[in-house]
DNA sequence: TTATATACAAACAGGAATGTATGTAAATGA
DNA sequence: TCATTTACATACATTCCTGTTTGTATATAA
């Protein structure tokens, strides 16, 4: 059983990606070998080299499978709806909570995050990934700033701080939360209260009426 | 020139540690070889194996050299001074700013942080490091909570949020800031405004008088 | 002064991982 | 139907890293 149909081939490719995610998670990216991945996927290294150039290539495939949809999702929840009079602070809160809920319910996403955050060394070819992540951060901060700007215009803010400062504070808070959420694998420290932490964070800047 | 005096030996040991830091930073921990480290330190692998068991052992040496003093420093600035009537919110702010200033001025510390955050994969023997870091986090959160408790007692807080919630929010904010500070190697995005971000964060919870 | 332990250097042995080259049966297109 | 890709499996060559062992000149202690 050698030559497969196109659909079969695409299926093996996906099997390799899934196998790689499991192997990366277990052994870290650097110590993962193409042999490990091939074995986990029930193929030989030949198949892996057919579908991918090398390990880095597989890493990018894993990453894109999770991050491209994620960025879209964040964009969606934060983009102002033209004819909506919904509270922008609620939008921010919902966006953050959505991401946490996605992480909770989506194993693939959770594992990918874990690999990217604590199972990968950002050197050489991987350094570019860091730059991409920083760029994405800038975009998110801008969305947050715009939302806080709208909140300010609507008189919803309890603080004289600039929308920019609020956006950065929220972004850093959420970055820290994501890291802790991932590192707190047994869930005893941060995972269980993540949503509450987000709500507290947002309440801190809501004007009480 | 073989057998050295005890002082000479200690000096080579330190040279190896410094060399390892440089090599880890450049190539990531996993891809760093004892040969790389030995060459950088102008010794042979024989010397490295004499002073350390293996690569992990060197990693721990690097880590302890920076983290043990750091934890002490944080403890110092956050611990309540008995006869002091200093504003606890100022104490928190000073503690966070101190850490950032240390990072700015201390190359060794900065490089070590970078290695720990983005040049190391937390698998196998390194997984325990994560647990230690989580434990340290808990301790810091407790110190923060106590400080916010004092601030509340003194009526300094602008929010009805619990000291615990404030402590966690600050901790996550600062964790995120540290990550961004390190990743933002060229300093264009976060480094230059880190102190301002801390001040904004703290102002958000200061009662205006 | 001499025996011993120290602080390494140098040599050795072994496994492992990577990339490539080659083989091959079956799907696909003309 | 037949030539050509395709989708892999297998085999090969090479490089690299690790841990250990052995050798040795010299501090150091007795």
Which helices and strands, and how do they pair?
Two copies of one chain form a homodimer.
Chain A: H1 6-27, H2 34-40, H3 45-51, H4 55-78, H5 88-105, H6 107-118, H7 127-153, H8 163-183, H9 194-203
Helix pairs in contact in A: 1-2, 1-4, 1-6, 4-5, 4-6, 4-7, 5-7, 5-9, 7-8, 8-9
The first copy, chain A, binds a DNA duplex (30 and 30 nucleotides) through residues 1-6, 8-9, 12, 33-35, 43-47, 49-51, 54.
Give a structural overview:
The structure is a homodimer of 209-residue chains. Chain A is an all-alpha fold. Helix content of chain A is 71%, strand content 0%. Chain A has nine helices and no strands. The first copy, chain A, has helices at 6-27, 34-40, 45-51, 55-78, 88-105, 107-118, 127-153, 163-183, 194-203. In chain A, α1 crosses α2 (34-40), α1 (6-27) crosses α4 and α5 packs antiparallel against α7. The N and C termini of chain A lie far apart (71 Å). At the A-B interface, α7, α8 and α9 of A face α7, α8 and α9 of B. Chain A binds a DNA duplex (30 and 30 nucleotides) through residues 1-6, 8-9, 12, 33-35, 43-47, 49-51, 54.
Brief rundown of the structure:
The structure is a homodimer of 209-residue chains. In chain A, 71% of the residues lie in helices and 0% in strands.
Features:
209 residues; homodimer; DNA-binding; mainly alpha
Structural class of chain A: mainly alpha
Q: Characterize the largest beta sheet of chain A: strand count, sense, and whether it forms a barrel.
A: none
End-to-end separation of chain A in angstroms reads 71 Å
Mean pLDDT of chain A: 93
List low-pLDDT spans of chain A.
none
- The portion of residues forming beta strands of chain A comes to under 5%
**Record field, number of beta strands of chain A:** 0
Q: Which outline of chain A best applies?
A: elongated
Specify the helix fraction band of chain A: over 70%
Q: Number of DSSP helices of chain A?
A: 9
Order of helices and strands of chain A: HHHHHHHHH
Radius of gyration of chain A: 20 Å
């Amino acid at each position: 059983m050698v030559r497969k149909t196109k659909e079969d081939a695409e299926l093996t490719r996906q099997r390799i990606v899934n196998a790689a995610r499991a192997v990366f998670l277990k052994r870290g990216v650097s110590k993962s070998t193409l042999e490990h991945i091939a074995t986990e996927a029930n193929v030989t290294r030949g198949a892996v080299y057919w579908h991918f150039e090398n390990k880095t290539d597989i890493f990018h495939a894993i990453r894109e499978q999770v991050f491209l949809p994620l960025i879209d999702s964040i964009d969606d929840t934060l983009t102002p709806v033209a004819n909506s009079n919904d509270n922008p602070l609620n939008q921010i809160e919902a966006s953050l909570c959505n991401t946490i809920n996605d992480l909770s319910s989506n194993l693939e996403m959770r594992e990918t995050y874990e690999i990217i955050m604590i199972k990968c060394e950002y050197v050489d070819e991987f350094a570019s990934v860091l730059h991409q992540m920083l760029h994405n951060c800038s975009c998110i901060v801008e969305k947050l700033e715009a939302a806080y700007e709208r909140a300010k215009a609507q008189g919803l803010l309890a603080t004289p701080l600039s929308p920019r400062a609020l956006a950065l504070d929220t972004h850093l808070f959420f970055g820290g939360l994501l890291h802790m959420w991932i590192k707190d694998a047994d869930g005893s420290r941060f995972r269980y209260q993540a949503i509450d932490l987000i709500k507290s964070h947002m309440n801190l800047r809501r004007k009480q009426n």
